Fold this sequence. Notes:
The protein is α+β, with helices and mostly antiparallel strands. It contains five helices and four strands.
Amino acid sequence: MSNVKNQHYVPRFYLKGFSNNKLRVWAFDKTTAKSFPSNSGNLASENYFYDHKEIDEIFGAKFIEKSLGDIEDRIAPLLTRLLDDFDNRKVFKIDEQTKAQLCEYMSIQILRTKAKYTSDVYTDGTDFG
Length: 129
């Protein structure tokens, strides 16, 4: 994996679902109370957000980013198919394996939000940065 600098806490494939054909998403700046179009690659991300020296020394470089990427690669086609079926008003059934994958994805997504991730990393007395 290359040196990933811009690391998303909301997966890019998820943001693309809200974008227009130019991959732009409407964003809202809470500080200025203004909305604006933005490239989906620039939203819900920070440089080196998941980089932690101690974790990378134990598990390998970019461990968290790679692990999240692996999960996203598995779930993106599944979510795309489900959303396409929904948009086309198709009836779809979700088997047990698919349910398990969706549960895994949703659980991890909750944990990787900026508020949750930074509060868990920095308020438990353990500073991995």
